[in-house]
Design goal:
Helices cover about 20% and strands about 20% of the residues. The chain has about 525 residues and is α+β, with helices and mostly antiparallel strands. The chain folds into three domains: about 180 residues, Beta-clip-like, CATH 2.170.270.10; about 90 residues, no CATH class; about 180 residues, Cytidine Deaminase, domain 2 (3-Layer(aba) Sandwich). Bound molecules: S-adenosylmethionine. S-adenosylmethionine binds next to strand 2 and strand 6.
């Protein structure tokens, strides 16, 4: 066993905490070789492999392997046609690289649980878990679609076998060429995972929804009638605020407005938008309620704030609920993994007659409680001969089926009971649908190879999806800005953010789909 590099790693980690000995006991007969609990075991039919000795959460950097670099001449003279051909790969500047540490022992899987990114600046490769990995589970990466061995334990559709000797370059970690988006050093490939990336540094472009909501002239400010009462003696303000809290009159409809307005020594309390006159306490010396016009929405700009404040003190909220939030490096890596996933899946569709559209909903980056597993769905219109089996429709349905199956019947919502309006992303317009909630994608992100068509975009809007990322724009049929932009329509009761994933030149791209086809 060529154990040299691993002996070194073992001695490094053997001095670490007592936590390590717990991990060691889980991986009894094997060495635990790093702090994340990776160990080496024999993998049936594959030689050695890297295994988890404890639970490894998703997005954990499980190994950072320094690489040894050989010039082309050195490699041709001394490395070529040796065992090294099974371990070395082409570095981006043309040199040959051998990963030290555990890096060279990750086996291949078509369903990898580990992603990797090379860091030329530090001459290393960083390996990251893509999902929760259980103890005793093998940690695998995706090498390439061109394999030179018969893979064990993988269901992928193999292309013709490639024999190392017949090709000019050692193709090992050809994987980096196929998944070429990880080859270039990008802003999200290094740095503090909490650093925020913006603008050009992001691998996608947010689509600005053109919505006429700025309300920057008085005639555009939308207003509603609300009840108010003057409190002549300021000593009653606290009493009235307390009373209001208990009165049941408070509602979200006024949450963008301040409760008290002070003008010319008179304090006025905003009560409610009820149609009937609110009944006020009789033991407090206040006037009679009266109706006034107040803004319907918070102020999105300073100009709008000044105008709205003339009617009633209004909250300044420059970011609308549906607008994209700030993205950290760690979150971009999460999205990049999702994009790599759909790209790999779409390659598999080329061997079938299906349309090459793939949709994916990963576990949410921030709040895994929203969805405890990820979903992937392909377009199945051809195999099912059903015109509605688009990838996005299929994935919404898959989520609904799974939720319906996995919730105890008494916890399932009554499909005919009206759902309350969503607190995340809804526009506060009451939801009168009577469709149950199983299918809702509230707070979730959809990644899809092609811009969803108008039908799918409407279904996604209805599902309350948080954001949609697509790779290929569909200018003739798309419903996310191509031929129409569904979430920007007036009167819709939900808006979702849209982003176009930028594919670098030469990187893997989804298979071509006729522009006239609904994706
Ligand atoms: C970088 S090495 C991986 C570590 C290797 N298993 C070892 O024992 O040193 C690549 C070699 O592992 C084997 N291998 C990797 N993934 C495999 C898989 N899914 N099925 C069968 N063999 C695999 C192949 O022989 C390949 O040439």
């Amino acid at each position: 066993m060529a154990a040299l590099p691993f002996t070194a790693t073992t001695s490094n980690t053997s001095t670490s905490s007592g936590e390590l000995s717990t991990k060691n006991s889980l991986c009894r007969s094997d060495w635990v070789l790093n702090r994340e609990g990776c160990c080496i075991k024999t993998a049936e039919g594959k030689g050695r492999g890297v295994y988890a000795s404890c639970i490894i959460p998703p997005h954990t950097v499980i190994e950072v392997s320094p690489v040894l670099l050989f010039t082309r001449i050195e490699y041709e003279g001394y490395g070529r046609h040796t065992i090294l051909d099974h371990y070395t790969f082409k570095w981006r500047d043309g040199r040959m690289a051998l990963a030290l540490g555990l890096g060279s022992l990750f086996n291949h899987s078509s369903h990898p649980n580990v992603s990797y990114a090379i860091d030329p600046a530090h001459e290393c490769i960083r390996y990251t878990s893509t999902r929760t990995v259980n103890p005793e589970e093998e940690l695998c990466i995706f090498y390439s679609h061109k394999l030179w061995f018969d893979p064990v334990g993988t269901t992928e559709n193999l292309g013709p076998q490639v024999c190392l000797d017949q090709i000019e370059q050692p193709e090992f970690l050809d994987i980096l060429a196929v998944d070429s988006e990880v080859v270039e050093v990008e802003p999200w490939d290094s740095g503090d995972p909490n650093d925020i990336l913006e603008g050009e540094a992001l691998p996608f472009i947010w689509k600005k929804l053109q919505i006429d909501e700025e309300e920057e002239s008085m005639k555009d400010v939308r207003t509603m009638q609300a009840w108010a009462v003057d409190i002549l003696d300021s000593k009653y303000i606290a009493t009235m605020l307390k009373w209001l809290k208990q009165s049941g009159l408070e509602s979200d409809t006024l949450s963008h407005l301040k409760r008290i307005r002070k003008r010319d020594c008179i304090s006025t309390l905003l009560l409610s938008v009820s149609s009937s006159v609110p009944l006020l306490p009789t033991n407090v010396d206040i006037g009679d309620p009266y109706q006034i016009s107040v803004p319907c929405n918070p102020a999105l700009t300073q100009t709008s704030l000044v105008l709205k404040n003339t009617l009633w003190p209004t909250v300044f909220a420059p970011r609308r609920k549906w607008e994209p939030e700030k993205w950290s490096i760690a979150k971009v890596q999460w999205a990049r993994d999702a994009i790599s996933h759909i790209l790999r899946k779409t390659v598999q569709t080329t061997s079938s007659d299906e349309l090459p559209v793939v949709a994916h909903i990963p576990k949410p980056f921030e709040d895994e409680a929203l969805l405890s597993r990820s979903f992937t769905a392909k377009d199945t219109r051809i195999s099912t001969r059903h015109p509605l089996r688009h990838a996005a429709m299929n994935i919404i349905r898959n989520v609904a089926d799974w939720r319906a199956k996995s919730s105890p019947p008494d916890l399932l919502p009554d499909p005919l009971k009206p759902v309350a309006s969503s607190s995340d992303g809804s526009l506060g317009i009451s939801d009168t649908s009577c469709n149950g909630t199983n299918y809702l994608l509230t707070g979730l992100t959809l990644f899809i190879t092609h811009e969803p068509c108008i039908m799918c975009s409407m279904a996604l809007l209805h599902s309350r999806v948080k954001e949609v990322f697509y790779i290929v724009p569909m200018p003739q049929t798309g419903g996310c800005g191509g031929s129409a932009c569904l979430p920007a329509l007036k009167g819709v009761n939900h808006r979702f953010s849209i982003a176009h994933w930028r594919q670098r030149e030469g990187s893997a791209a989804p298979a071509h789909l006729d522009e006239r086809i609904d994706a």
